[in-house]
Prior knowledge:
This protein is α/β, with parallel strands linked by helices. It has a single domain (10-249), classed as 3-Layer(aba) Sandwich (Rossmann fold), CATH 3.40.50.720. Helix content is 44%, strand content 17%. It is built from 8 helices and 9 strands. The protein has helices at 19-30, 42-52, 64-77, 105-131, 152-155, 161-181, 205-215, 227-239; strands at residues 10-14, 34-39, 55-58, 80-85, 143-148, 186-193, 196-197, 225-226, 247-250. The N and C termini lie far apart (45 Å).
Amino acid sequence: xxxxxxxxxxxxxxxxxxxxxxxxxxxxxxxxxxxxxxxxxxxxxxxxxxxxxxxxxxxxxxxxxxxxxxxxxxxxxxxxxxxxxxxxxxxxxxxxxxxxxxxxxxxxxxxxxxxxxxxxxxxxxxxxxxxxxxxxxxxxxxxxxxxxxxxxxxxxxxxxxxxxxxxxxxxxxxxxxxxxxxxxxxxxxxxxxxxxxxxxxxxxxxxxxxxxxxxxxxxxxxxxxxxxxxxxxxxxxxxxxxxxxxxxxxxxxxxxxxx
Length: 259
């Protein structure tokens, strides 16, 4: 069996303007797919899309209208075959503060809305378009989806209740969604990254020192992972036709301590 061929297809990468999303978009473009960069960062998103010969769409992943606009834009460039759900955010906050005040519920809801509901929204809208395409092979395969969870889904730290719940939800929905979409030949897998060197850590000498300190807690190699290393796994999951319904940690063997 050959790997899935994405030449002449279209694909969507949410959060594609930077980090893991950008790295994944670059590899998809290298594989011959026309990539839609779905992001809120217009300046960076436009630049990446232009460089890759793709298209930028400003997209709030939790918006049905934005999701439909993104899917329609991709479908105009070729049959939609891949979605990488990489958009997400973190927001630290203890369940109760040091003076015993409960976490603002709106903060919890916001993280769930973007990370979990946003991922499902993009996935379901994209799957509808994939299901309408012609099969790619004798198995009846029509496309593949990769969601981005986090090691925090399994060993969330102090202050990560909302983030861990959102990413744990992504882990939990992987198998049932894969079962739902099996009838139309769409595979669904999830990656749980560990400590990855993305723009969230900032830049400069202080940032580099902080990242080096974090890297010491990784089993091996003792450093943060790169966006490209995560993108390698994204492409493996997209192109291996027998990978389905799986959650894979890509974290250098780290198990996160409480703090």
